[in-house]
Amino acid sequence: MALLYDDPIFLKHDTGPHPECAARLGEVSARLAETGLVERCSRPQWDLVEREALGRVHNLAYVDSVQRFAAQGGGYIESDTAVSSESHYVARSAAGAVVDATRRVVAGEDTQALCLVRPPGHHAVQASAMGFCLFNNVAVAASTATRELELDRVLIVDWDVHHGNGTQATFWEDEQVGFLSVHRSPFYPGTGDADETGAGKGLGTTHNVPLAFGTSRAQYVDQFTKALEQMAEKIRPLLVLVSAGFDTHVLDPVGSLGLEDEDYVTLTDLVLDVAEQHANGRVVSVLEGGYNVEILPGSVAAHLTAMLERQSSQ
Ligand SMILES: [Zn+2]
Fold first, then answer.
1. Is the C or the N end of the chain the one with fewer CB within 10 Å?
2. Peptide bond between residue 8 and the one before it cis (omega within 30 degrees of 0)
3. Is the peptide bond before 253 cis (omega within 30 degrees of 0)?
4. How far apart, in Å, are the Cα atoms of 237 and each of 190, 233, 248, 282, 283?
5. Rounded to two decimals, what is the model's pTM?
6. Rounded-to-10 torsion of CA 57, 167, 296, 69
7. In angstroms, how far is CA 80 from the centroid of its own chain?
8. How far, in Å, is the centroid of ligand 1 from the Cα of 83?
């Protein structure tokens, strides 16, 4: 079994004509049901994220401003990020799901969780929405793990096609949270150069692998493998979190680094190896991007299948 967070509440973040649309998840849910993957998972109930947990990453005045903006009917809260009247509630539920998954996995209820949430999170910074993201779900989960659950070391692996600038900024000076991002560059949001490695006590706990458009699948996997091994040795994580974006897919209309569904099996297996070696297999994966509504279900299914196969082989 794995914990699966897949719920119609996430369809209520209505972005209108926008690549980050509710149909993304509707199609994924349908595929997981059709293929029987849902039955191999348990489906916990969870609560909205608490202000205390959100406040470890975001300025609470910003959180309140998102609530007011949504309550007034929404619109574009920044140039790329659409908000509807229910978006604050949905975003609190998304962060809540990821926090709940982290608490359950650390408590030993299961070793694996997959959180199919939206809005995504990895671009959101302390006091601002950015790049389709309102609250930084994975960052809230990592800070819950270190500060509430008292894990000494956590590793976030971000394989979304975009650099996870918000996550990087959150943990820039944090020695407990390692951040590995493999992403297309030059590309939005413009950060994530190889020389961005953290500062202060966090110096060396950030590792960026910028890859040019046109990098081959084999080169991508090779670079990912080397960087992950390096970070796993350095951080020796007690929990691995994944910012699982599928906009690296060759048919993604927004990003694309040429990957195919079988590559997500490879990336998942590599992350699971690290989790097994250091973290008793504990992995919480969180959906970020992936904007081809017809392709995304297959990519997510490949990722979840690889997770479940690993458990059943043990
Ligand atoms: Zn992305």
1. C
2. no
3. no
4. 28, 9, 25, 10, 10
5. 0.98
6. 40
7. 19
8. 18
58 included as an active-site residue: no
What are the pLDDT digits (tens) for 28-48? 999 999 999 999 999 999 999
Strand 81-83 versus strand 75-78 pairing type: antiparallel
- From the candidates 58, 123, 162, 207, give the one annotated as an active-site residue: 123
Distance in angstroms (rounded) separating the CA atoms of residues 140 and 49: 9
Helix or strand run (H / E) with residue 155: strand 154-158
CA 6 – ligand 1 centroid, Å: 20
Nearest to 235 by CA among 193, 283, 274: 274
d(CA 245, CA 264): 10
d(CA 162, CA 211): 10
Instruction: Please state the length of the chain.
Output: 314
Q: What is the pLDDT of residue 312?
A: 81
Helix, strand, or coil (residue 244)? strand
Name the token pair of 242. 């994944």
Q: Terminal CA-to-CA distance of the chain, rounded, Å?
A: 12
Residues 6+ apart with CB under 8 A from 302: 261, 262, 264, 265, 268
Beta bridge partners of 306: none
Find tokens 């199609």 and name the residue: 27
- Reading the block at residue 95, the tokens are 């962060």
Measured CA to CA, the distance from residue 216 to residue 116 in angstroms comes to 28
pLDDT along the chain (314 residues), means of 10: 97 96 96 97 98 98 98 97 98 98 98 98 98 98 98 98 98 98 98 98 98 98 98 98 98 97 98 98 98 98 98 81
DSSP 160: S
Please state, in angstroms and rounded to a whole number, the distance separating the CA atoms of residues 163 and 186. 10
Find the 157 Cα to ligand 1 centroid distance in Å. Answer: 13
* Beta bridge mates, 209: 182
pLDDT at 60: 98
Q: Rounded to the nearest whole angstrom, what is the distance from the C-alpha of residue 108 to the centroid of ligand 1?
A: 30
